[in-house]
Recover the amino acids of this structure.
């Protein structure tokens, strides 16, 4: 993995809103991008968009099917360990930041999240097992945390290398 | 199993054949060219037409197919996928108002599609079906659902889609197909369904399966059911709740391992609507994706095509041999060992259990069960009694009792030295001089640590109790079709549906209070008084538990006792919940000649 350097820290959502718009639709002559470093800028914008989409995919998959459901998004194909009590991650947009390394090979996103922490239902009765299977909990309380996600660029695109809640 | 297509056995007792990929492929290939059978005249509405269907991503995010069809006749179609493969196959279509339903298989693939087209809007629901996707039971039909539209040159793509939602939740219908098959079908969950076979089987038992519920609009819906853990047969149909008509597909292997592959028409009858418990105005529906929790299978890939939450009870059931049961139970019988009540640290289903009653202490009681034992009791304390069976030796035992209404107690204890480790869970009715016992026992012919249950009705003899003569508590249809929610503790609410006189189905509410995973077992419903009912169910091929409850419809509270054997031994534990009456389906006419009526 390349060494991450803080060269392009931006507000995550602003970037995504910008890069969601194709360059042609922005009225930029594509040929003009070939000069003066614009091509590199476009590539960086595409990276940012890809990383943002991957982060969104992670949140969506986690909320739909738990940590195991996110394993395909990771470089090592393994589900992350965020703690058994973490049941839901809701993005709090205000403090989300993305930093792409200067060499473009890695990235770090810091995403402010409301984290639902669930107290597991205890018991071995059939209905308790069924309730746990569908995500029920004895109680849920929320806490504000930051999801720190590390990304790596591979030949076939971006993958997540690590996530942690801090 | 080969033999009868629908043998006289509950589905959970049938030894389903582990069919191989090759056997399945051979049987499917044999009918792919001819297409599904159909008892009704088939539709000609697609003949001479070509269709291009564009699909969105499926329910787990997998890419949907692009399907191109041409239909030279009412039974033959040419299909290309993505547009990779061009193949000839047989198909059958049926129309339902503006809807066209058609189904076919892909040659050589053990895979096919069922498609619902809304000809008025060009919106389509495409259901892909395939065999072999669940390694442990390859006969089980898998499904993925794609929303999409019919592409027409020069026309913009429709922006609306058919929608998974909860609009059907809580409804039930009686369907009669053109094949003669009749079913009661309960849409009592956003992700599961319950059904009773009225003609293919003996209507004594209802079963549960994962389902899809999709709204087309204007009172028209799409429903699917996959009989997971049983035959694996898949059914899908579009229907109109106002016209009470359905058109659909049945695909899969019955108990004789015969392939059922037919398109059907049917007529329906509305059986009622029970309450929903989501926030008012909330319409979110299924499907539920798998979220394996503690004790559940963890190798489910929630992003795989067709993945969804499927309750597979045998995956978590540690079955035991008779030798194992007989070895562990004598020294490991735990009767009312658990804490009960809110604030006591009680968990599971004991959170709302009240302290046991002292009302029996000091009393002497004799119960003469009809065609059963004579039980004599002396209640020495709130926890202990002495009993003797059929005049034998007096034996101390731990018991607890709860007084449901004045003079009517639920009482339970284990019997020592019985070869099958019996437990008695009895209603003692001092007001009417009656007693009814659900006699739990182990070492059944099926699974040694699965409970069996005898129903014992008898006369209670005690100071002040009247002689009932020949009168006894009786089986009842009062509970038939009712749905009662049981809130056991925060995060744990189940709803019972009594779909036949001998069926209890339980449905677990999600955190959003949608009805979710569901299963069912056999049982009985006995009337103690108007509004007071003594019920049981056995979690057959599931957890093996005998569950009993004495349900008071006036206080909407219950007290019950569970009887369960596992590797930790035999336990009898109290359960209690706060109840709500969700409603009652109109089912009595289907069972007037068939109360439980069984006195073992």
């Amino acid at each position: 993995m390349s060494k991450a350097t803080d060269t392009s820290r931006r507000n995550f959502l602003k970037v995504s809103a910008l890069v969601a718009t194709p360059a042609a639709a922005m009225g930029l002559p594509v040929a003009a991008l070939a000069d003066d470093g614009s091509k590199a800028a476009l590539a960086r914008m595409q990276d940012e968009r890809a990383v943002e989409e991957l982060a969104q995919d992670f949140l969506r998959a986690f909320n739909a099917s738990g940590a195991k459901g996110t394993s395909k998004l990771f470089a090592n194909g393994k589900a992350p360990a965020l703690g058994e009590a973490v049941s839901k991650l809701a993005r709090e947009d205000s403090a989300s930041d993305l930093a792409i390394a200067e060499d473009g090979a890695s990235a770090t996103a810091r995403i402010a999240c409301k984290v639902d922490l669930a107290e597991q239902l205890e018991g071995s009765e059939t209905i308790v097992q069924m309730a746990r299977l569908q995500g029920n909990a004895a109680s849920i309380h929320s806490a504000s945390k930051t999801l720190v996600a590390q990304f790596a660029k591979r030949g076939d695109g971006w993958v997540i290398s690590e996530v942690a809640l801090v | 199993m080969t033999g009868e297509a629908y043998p006289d056995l509950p589905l959970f007792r049938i030894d389903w054949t582990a069919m191989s990929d090759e056997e399945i492929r051979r049987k499917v290939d044999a009918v792919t060219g001819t297409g599904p059978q159909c008892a009704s005249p088939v539709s000609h509405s697609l003949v001479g037409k070509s269709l291009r269907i564009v699909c969105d991503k499926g329910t787990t995010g997998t890419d949907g197919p692009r399907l191109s069809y041409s239909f030279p006749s009412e039974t033959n179609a040419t299909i290309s996928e993505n547009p990779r493969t061009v193949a000839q196959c047989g198909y059958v279509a049926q129309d339902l108002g503006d809807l066209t339903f058609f189904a076919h298989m892909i040659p050589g693939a053990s895979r096919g599609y069922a498609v619902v087209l809304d000809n008025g809007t060009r919106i389509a629901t495409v259901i892909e079906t395939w065999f072999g996707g669940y390694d442990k039971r390859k006969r089980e039909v898998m499904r993925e659902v794609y929303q999409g539209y019919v592409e027409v040159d020069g026309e913009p793509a429709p922006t609306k889609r058919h929608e998974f939602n909860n609009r059907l939740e809580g409804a039930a219908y009686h369907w009669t197909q053109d094949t003669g098959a009749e079913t009661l079908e309960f849409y009592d969950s956003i992700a599961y369904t319950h059904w009773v076979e009225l003609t293919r089987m003996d209507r004594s038992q209802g079963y549960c399966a994962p389902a899809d519920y999709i709204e087309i609009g204007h009172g028209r819906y799409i429903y699917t059911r996959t009989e997971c853990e049983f035959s694996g047969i898949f059914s899908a149909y579009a229907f109109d709740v106002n016209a009470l008509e359905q058109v659909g597909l049945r695909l899969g292997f019955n108990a004789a391992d015969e392939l059922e592959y037919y398109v059907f028409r049917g007529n329906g009858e509305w059986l009622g609507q029970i309450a929903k418990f989501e926030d008012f105005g909330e319409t979110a529906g299924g499907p539920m994706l798998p979220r394996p929790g503690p004790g559940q299978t963890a190798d489910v890939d929630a992003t795989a095509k067709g993945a969804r939450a499927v309750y597979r009870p045998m995956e978590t059931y540690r079955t035991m041999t008779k030798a194992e049961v007989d070895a562990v139970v004598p020294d490991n019988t735990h009767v009312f060992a658990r804490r009960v009540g809110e604030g006591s640290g009680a968990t599971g289903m004991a959170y709302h259990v009240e302290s046991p009653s002292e009302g029996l202490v000091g009393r002497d009681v004799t119960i003469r069960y009809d065609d059963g034992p004579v039980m004599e009791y002396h209640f020495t304390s709130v926890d202990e009694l002495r009993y003797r069976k059929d005049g034998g030796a007096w034996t101390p035992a731990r018991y607890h009792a709860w007084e449901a209404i004045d003079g009517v107690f639920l009482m339970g204890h284990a019997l020592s030295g019985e070869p099958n480790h019996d437990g008695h869970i009895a209603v003692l009715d001092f007001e009417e001089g009656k007693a009814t016992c659900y006699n739990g026992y182990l070492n059944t012919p099926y699974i040694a640590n699965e409970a069996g249950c005898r129903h014992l009705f008898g006369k209670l003899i005690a100071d002040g109790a009247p002689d009932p003569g020949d009168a006894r508590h009786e089986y009842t249809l009062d509970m038939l079709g009712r749905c009662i929610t049981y809130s056991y503790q925060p995060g744990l609410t189940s709803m019972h549906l009594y779909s036949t006189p001998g069926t209890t189905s339980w449905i677990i509410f999600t955190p959003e209070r949608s009805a979710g995973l569901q299963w069912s077992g056999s049982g009985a419903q006995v009337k103690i008084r108007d509004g007071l009912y003594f019920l049981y169910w056995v979690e057959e091929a599931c957890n093996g538990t005998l569950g009993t409850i004495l349900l008071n419809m006036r206080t909407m509270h219950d007290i019950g006792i569970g009887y369960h054997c596992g590797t930790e031994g035999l336990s009898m534990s109290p359960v209690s919940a706060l109840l709500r009456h969700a409603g009652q389906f109109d089912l009595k006419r289907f069972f007037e000649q068939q109360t439980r009526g069984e006195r073992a």
Remarks:
- Helices of chain B lie at 21-32, 322-328, 588-591.
- The longest helix of chain B spans residues 21-32.
